[in-house]
TrEMBL record, chains A, B:
The keyword rRNA-binding does not apply. It comes from the Bacteria. It comes from Ureibacillus yapensis. This is HAD family hydrolase. The lineage of its organism: Bacteria, Bacillati, Bacillota, Bacilli, Bacillales. NCBIfam families: HAD-SF-IA-v1. InterPro entries: HAD-like_hydrolase_domain, HAD-like_sf, HAD-SF_hydro_IA, HAD_2, HAD_sf, PGP-like_dom2. PANTHER family: HALOACID DEHALOGENASE-LIKE HYDROLASE DOMAIN-CONTAINING PROTEIN 3 (PTHR46191:SF2), PTHR46191.
Length: 235, 235
């Protein structure tokens, strides 16, 4: 048994959106075919752009930014559409695609393994009321000792306060904890403010974050169990 | 009399949009007050961002990009609105504001002076069918010996071809010509491809183009007549 605590972000750390599938449906309506990987890459680049240039925007209600986000995804794909009708189609698709957020194929296995090895696990996430429902829906809630969601605690990453609340609830410290997230600015910079070591997930290795000089990048949480076994890597 | 030829871009070189006024109307509906200069600056930054990061997009039909553009203007002003209803309001305001494009207060005076001093004058512009109507509406057409508009010639800046067509129609050369425009990437880079010396207009001096190392920046065409008199500045 160990006192080590591993905290996770939710979106693109444990779960992913079926957004590319919805976009493909829209392209189909426009009689356009495109490789799925290209669409994934465009969304990935749009995410990274928003994280870097427009912090906090992706956490707002979608009517405030989604046309804008789509404009950028389209642009990466060298496409242009009427943004009003495209956004309507896509929002409807998002509503109808249930569940819209899915666990990665390896998410449960990894959480299971880490618990078996005695790590305590937690969530620190910027999310609305649906955060807890999502974890319940996918039977993930029981893997976690503490779940800290911004809308419930009234503070969000990259503020120090959300991490401090997590340490308090988890009865742990920055030195006993590591954090895993996909947003350099919220997760690595935010975590850094409280001395928290953070592993940055980037599914496409350094693509989209070429400007970031950071040594701790992994492609997915699937790398965690073996990484944790390598001595001195984490703690 | 001289053989020297001065070519102009149209938007934000000779004419400007009443866009900030329309945005202010929208803010009024939302019961928000904001200094006009701050709004001008946000639009200026959005222009520069699009010119640099999304070349060609501002020339597309507005339904393809305007929500996106507004999202960025809002973001600079630390505001967030439902983009669909905001865009509807703003497009209606643009339609109803006639004329939506106006000459700068000094535009006619400067063109008049330059003609008096014997310069030949022309237009090289990326614009749709409304380009020629706009010049007619404001009684500007007669100042120009040649008017080259992208939609009429089927090529656009920064392509070499539009400048070559202009030289041919104007019976002039890159060495006898200078160009004045506000888009570094279309005008300076594009003009550079045919050895055309270009003065870059930036109303806020280097604000929004801090990354550009370019010596020939003016705030408006109002500086031209005296600049042209300083020997060796232009030719």
């Amino acid at each position: 048994m160990t006192n080590k605590y591993i905290w996770f972000d939710i979106g693109y750390t444990l779960l992913y959106q079926q957004r590319e599938q919805v976009y493909v449906q829209y392209l189909k309506e426009q009689k356009i075919e495109m490789p799925f990987e290209k669409i994934e890459e465009a969304y990935h680049y749009a995410d990274k752009l928003f994280m870097r240039e427009y912090p906090g925007v992706l956490g707002k209600q979608s009517s405030f930014f989604y046309h804008w986000y789509l404009g950028i995804v389209n642009h990466y794909l060298e496409l242009a559409f009427d943004l009003e009708s495209q956004n309507r189609f896509i929002q409807k698709g998002i509503q109808e695609t249930k569940p819209y957020w899915l666990p990665f194929s390896f998410t449960k296995d990894v959480l299971h393994k880490l618990r078996q090895e005695g790590y305590r696990l937690g969530i620190i996430s910027n999310w609305d009321e649906s955060g807890r429902q999502l974890l319940d829906y996918h039977n993930l809630t029981d893997y976690f000792d503490n779940i800290i969601i911004s809308c419930e605690v009234g503070v969000e990453k990259p503020s120090k306060a959300i991490f401090e609340k997590a340490f308090k609830q988890g009865n742990t410290t920055n030195e006993e904890s590591i954090y895993i997230g996909d947003n350099y600015y919220d997760d690595v910079v935010g975590g850094g403010k409280v001395g928290l070591k953070t592993y940055l997930i980037n599914r496409f290795r350094d693509q989209g974050i070429e400007e970031i000089q950071y040594p701790y990048i992994i492609e997915s949480i699937n790398e965690l169990p073996s990484l944790l076994k390598e001595e001195n890597v984490y703690f």
